[in-house]
């Protein structure tokens, strides 16, 4: 995880050209990590086991600060790459109070043919109490979440994306490591980070 985080930080450093974004980046570099005890309390509160790669990242840096986009999942070559900032552990807990705080099945909102479009790794929910949001686009219309209740084809702790308007969920990556690898690859293809 150290290598991927170092690669991320170097890519961010190299791709930032705007002074306001540079200030956010400098603040991001100063963020402290989360103590092991805080991670354990979080896990007990939500009855989950955070993936070790995520724990390692957060022991070093507690989020990225609002507006400092550090994750770029998708496919930059196809022009489908979205910027996300990492929430602090406290922001994750605050967001969880109103987002994915109840279970809502897709069939309550969608027809069977629409539900068939759901990626096979995800159970047919629109909101699930076993989903934990950890990253967002500024404004909160799209979230990246850990899925701790995957479908049979999925993986415990996989990354899914919740998109608002129209609300739907999509599979993003098998792990935080895979997400970071994808993001770093996309960042390397961008000419510059622009908001």
Automatic annotation (TrEMBL):
Under InterPro entries, the record lists:
Knr4/Smi1-like_dom, Knr4/Smi1-like_sf, KNR4/SMI1_regulator
Q: Name one Pfam family in it.
A: SMI1_KNR4
Q: Which residues form the Knr4/Smi1-like domain?
A: 33-182
Domain of life, per UniProt, equals: Bacteria
Tell me the protein's name.
SMI1/KNR4 family protein
């Amino acid at each position: 995880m150290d290598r991927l985080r170092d690669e991320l930080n170097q890519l961010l450093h190299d791709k930032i050209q705007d002074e306001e974004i540079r200030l956010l980046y400098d603040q991001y570099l100063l963020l402290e990590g989360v103590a092991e005890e805080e991670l354990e309390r979080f896990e007990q509160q939500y009855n989950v086991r955070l993936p070790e790669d995520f724990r390692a990242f957060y022991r070093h840096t507690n989020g990225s600060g609002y507006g400092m986009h550090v994750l770029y999942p998708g496919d930059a070559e196809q022009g489908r790459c979205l910027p996300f900032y990492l929430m602090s552990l406290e922001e994750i807990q605050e967001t969880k109070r109103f987002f994915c705080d109840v279970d809502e099945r897709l069939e309550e909102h969608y027809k069977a043919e629409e539900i068939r479009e759901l990626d096979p790794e995800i159970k047919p929910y629109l909101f699930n109490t076993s989903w934990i949001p950890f990253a967002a686009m500024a404004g909160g219309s799209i979230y990246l979440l850990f899925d701790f209740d995957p479908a049979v084809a999925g993986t415990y702790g996989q990354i899914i994306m919740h998109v608002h308007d129209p609300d739907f969920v999509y599979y993003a990556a098998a792990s935080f490591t895979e997400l970071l690898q994808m993001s770093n690859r996309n960042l390397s293809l961008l000419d510059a980070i622009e908001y």
